[in-house]
Amino acid sequence: MKIKIAFALILLSSFALWAQEPTVVERGKYYIFTWSTDAEVKSVPSQLTMNHLNGDVLIRGYHNNTIKYVEKMQIEASSRREAEKLWEQYHLKFEADHNGFIVNQEGKRNLSFGSHSIRVDYIADVPEMTSIAVNTLGGNIDVSELQGAIELVSAGGDIRIEKTRGRIFTKTYGGDVQAFQLEGKIEARSAGGDIEMRLVTGEISVETAGGDILLKTMNGNLDITTLGGDIELADVKGQKVRLKTMGGDVQVDDCEADLYAETKGGEIKVRNITGSVEGKTSGGDVYGRNINGPARLSTMSGDVEIMRITGAVDAETKNGSILISKYYSPKFENHKIFASTQNGSISLDLPANADVSFDLTARGYDNSITSDFNIDIKKIDSRLVKASGRLEKGTHAVELYVDNGNIKIRKRGQ
Predict the structure, then answer these.
(1) pLDDT tens-digit profile of 233-288?
(2) Where are the domains of the chain?
(3) Residue 174, CA distances (Å) to 13, 51, 112, 158 in order
(4) pTM confidence score
C-alpha cells in the first residue's frame, strides 16, 4: 500500500545529492553495511516519503537546509560476497521526486527478507519544516522536532513521536503508540497495542482495538475509544471530552471540559471535574468526586457514589446503592436531584439551608425512609412508604425512588 498525502506549498526548485559507496564492517558472521547521502534543499517546507520499508525508522528535525540520510543494514551471511549480494538486493535508494525526496525503489515494493537474517535502520536528519510520510512493514518508527504534515504507519512495530507540530496521523497494526509534546490535529490508531500521550494540544482522536489508553496534560477536544482496555485521563482542558471502552475501566482526574464516559463492563471514576459529566456503565461502580457542574451517572449493576457536586444530579442503578453529597453554587440555576435504584438504598447529604422540595418513594417488603429534616413520612401499606416536604422556598426538586431498599436524608454536620 502506497501512502498518499497532499502537502501544500512544496516547491523544490533545485537540489543536490551527494552519495557514497557503503562502508562494511565484519563482525563474526555478521556484515554491517552503512550507506549515507546528503541532499541540499533549496526551498522549504520540504517533504520526505519512505514507503514499503522493513526495518526501524528514525527521523529528526534540525535547523539546517540539508537532508542527511543513512541506511544501516546488518546481514548474517556465510561470506562477504553473499552479504554484498543481499545488500544490493535490499538496499533502497534515496531519490528526488516531484514532491521532494523519496526512499523507495519501484521494483522492491514487496520488500521481504524471507528466511534471511537481516536488520535495517533507516535514519534521516531533515529540515524542521519537513512533511513526513512513512510506511514500514515490520519496524518501529521514531520521529521528533518537526513542523508539517506527518503520516506514520507500521504494520507490526511501535510508533513514537514527540516535539512536533502540524497535522499528525499515526497507525500501527500490532504495536504501541507514544506521543509527547505535540500540537495540531492529531489522530492515533493501534489495532492491538497501548497508546500513551502527554503534553498534547489540539483536536485529538485516539483509538485502539485491544489496549489501554493513558493521556496526561492535554489541551483541546478529545475523542477516545478502546474496544478492550482501560482509559486513564488526567489534567485536561478543553470543551468536549468523549471516552468510550467496551471492556475496561475509565478514570478521569482534573478535567476542565464537558465529559462523556462510557464502558460496557468496567468502573467509572471521575474526580475534580469542571463542566458537565455524563457517565454510564453496564457492569461496574460509578464514582464522582468534586464535580463543579451537573452530572448524569448510571450503571446497570453497581453502586453510584457522587461526593461534593455543585450542579444538578441524575443517578440511576438497577442493582446497587446510591450516595449523593450535594452542594449549591449560584453559578447554576438547576439543582434538581433525581435518583432511582432497584435492590439498593439511597443516601442523600444536604446542607442545613437547602432550598428543596421532596418527593420520596420506597417500595418493597424491606423499605424505610428516614430524614434529619422535618418532612412528612407516610407508610401507605406494607410495601410502600412515601415522603414529601419543603425546605426554605422549595425551589429545587428532590425526587428519589427505591425498589427493595431504604432512603436516608442527612443534614450535613449531623
Answers:
(1) 999 999 999 999 988 999 999 999 999 999 988 999 999 999 999 999 998 999 99
(2) 1-149, 158-266
(3) 39, 18, 18, 8
(4) 0.88
